[in-house]
Amino acid sequence: MISEDLEFQISQYADGTLPGEEAAALESTLASDAEARALVEAYRKVDVLLKRELPLPQMNWDRLAGHISAAVAQEEVAANDANRSYRIAWPVWSRLAIAAMVLLAVGLAAFMHLRPRADQIARLPNAPTVPPIILVTGPEPQRGGGAVIEIVSIAPSAVAQSSYRPADGVVYRPPRVVIASGQFDRQDSGRLPF
Amino acid sequence: MDPVTSDPNRDPSSELRTPAGGVAQGPTDGQLVEQALSGNRKAFDGLIVRYQRQAVAVSYRLLGNSQDALEVTQDAFLKAYTNLESLQKPAAFGGWLMRIVSNLSLNYRRSRKTRTSVPLADVLGPQSGEATESHGGGSEWMSSASGDPVRRLEGKELGVKLKEALAQLPERQRQAIMMFTIDEMPQKDIAAALNCSVEAIKWHVFQGRKKLKEILKEHL
Questions:
Q1: Which of A22, A122, B9, B43 could staple B36 via S-S, CB 3.0–4.6 A?
Q2: Hey, which residues 45-64 in chain A have their CB within 8 Å of chain B?
Q3: Burial of A185 (0-12, 13-18, 19+ CB in 10 A)
Q4: Cβ of A64 and B123 within 8 Å?
Q5: Is B21 left (phi over 0), alpha (psi -120 to 50) or beta?
Q6: A32 touches chain B (CB under 8 A)
Q7: Which residues of B touch A64 (CB under 8 A)?
Q8: What percent of chain A has pLDDT over 90?
Q9: Is the peptide bond before A132 cis (omega within 30 degrees of 0)?
C-alpha cells in the first residue's frame, strides 16, 4: 500500500518537478518497490494521453503575434491622438490662468504655513514685556443651594490699578461684573459697570 | 519551460545571436518591459511572441473555445500594454499577464457574448479545436495524423472518455492539470493565472492525475 505522501512524490517525480535530493531518495525506493514503479508509469501514461488527446488548437502564432502587435500600435496611435486633441482643446490663455491660480494657491498656503503664530511671537527674545492690565477670574460656583450661578469677575490688574485713569479707555472704572446663568434673567448688584 | 524556446513557431528575430553564432537567451522579461516603457514598442512585440501561446492556453482552458480565447488574448495584451507602468516588478511580467488573461477570461465567461464577426479566424489552423468542440469528440486533432479508420475510431472513443473523465474533476484540478501537463506552462504562471500558490498547483495536478488514473485505468 502506497501512502498519500509517497504518491504525491511519485506524481512530481513522474513530471520531473520533484527537487533533486528528494528525487534521488525516491529512486532508491523505486528500485525496490514494484508498485511504486508501476505508479510512475501510470502517471506518465495519463500525461501522454492528455497531451495526445487534448492539445491546444492549431494556430498560426506568427499571424497572431502580428494581429496583437498591430492592435497595440493602433491603441498607441489612438492614445497619442487623444493626448494631442486634449492639448489643442486648452488654449494658451486658459493654461496660463490655471498656472496663475495654482501659483496663487501655493503662495497662500505657504504664507499661512510660514507666518509666525501668536505663541511664537511671545517667545521672541526681544519681545517687550507688557504688564497685564485686566484680570479675569472665575467662573466660580455659587456657594449654597438655589439657582446655579457662575461668577466671572473682570477687574484691573494690580499694575493697572496703581496707575488707573478713566481716560485709559480700557477699564473706565474698577468694575466687578457678575454673569449669572441661573433660571432668572438678571444680574446682581446695582453697581453695574455700564 | 521557456516559452520562447518551446514555441515551434517562435519569431527567430526575437532571439539574440552571439558572436560565435550560437543562440543566446535574448533579453529578459524585465529588460523588455523596461525598453517598452521607454518607448520601444518592438520590445513589447518580443513579449507578445514570448507569451502569446501561454496566454491563449490559459484563456482556452478557461473558456473552452479557441475563438473567444484569441479575442481575450488580444485584449489582455492591449490591457497589459496600456497599464505597463503599473507593473511593479518588470521581471514578473509573465505572471502578471497570466493574471490579466485569467481575469478577462472569467469576465468573458460571465458575460459570454455571442460574436457574429470573426476577426481572428485567419489565425486558427485548419485542424483547430473548433472541429473537436463542434463534433463533441476529443480526438479529431489526433486522428488527422492517422489514416487508419480503426485507430481513428479508437482514438475518438478515448478522446470522449478523457473529456468525460476531465469533466468529473473539480474545476481547479482540471485547469491546473491541463495548463501544466498539456500546455507545459511553468507552475508559477499557472499559480498566477489561477490565483493560488505554486504548492496548491502541485497538489491540484497530483489530485487530478490520481483521479484520471482511476477513471481511465482500463485504457492505461
A1: B43
A2: 45-47, 49-64
A3: exposed
A4: yes
A5: left
A6: no
A7: 52, 56, 70, 73, 120, 123
A8: 37
A9: no
Other CB atoms within 10 Å distance of the CB of residue B137: 20
Q: pLDDT tier at A146 (50, 70, 90 boundaries)? A: low
Q: Which of A11, A62, A68 sits opposite B11 (nearest CB)?
A: A62
Chain A residue with Cα closest to B39: A76
> Residue A80 has what pLDDT?
73
Q: Mind listing the pLDDT tens digit for each residue in B74-119?
A: 999 999 999 999 999 999 999 999 999 999 999 998 887 544 444 4
**Is pLDDT at A11 greater than 70 in this prediction?**
yes
User: Does the CB of A115 have a partner CB in chain B at under 8 Å?
Assistant: no
Q: Which residue has the cell 485686566?
A: A134
> B220: pLDDT confidence band, cut at 50, 70 and 90?
confident
- A182 Cβ partners below 8 Å, 6+ apart? A146, A147, A148, A149
Mutate to test the interface with B, among A39, A64, A83 (most CBs of B within 10 A): A64
Chain B positions touching A42 (Cβ under 8 A) are 213, 217, 220
ipTM > 0.90?
no
C-alpha cell at B171: 474545476
Q: Judge contact between A152 and A188, C-beta under 8 A.
A: no
| Apex B206 CA angle, B171 and B70, nearest 5 | 45
> pLDDT tens-digit profile of B131-149?
333 333 332 222 334 455 5
Predicted confidence at residue A129, as pLDDT, reads 62
| Mutate: best of A12, A56, A74, partner B, most B CBs <10 A | A56
Buried b vs exposed e over B93-112: b needs ≥16 C-beta within 10 Å? Answer: bbbbbbbbbbebbeebeeee
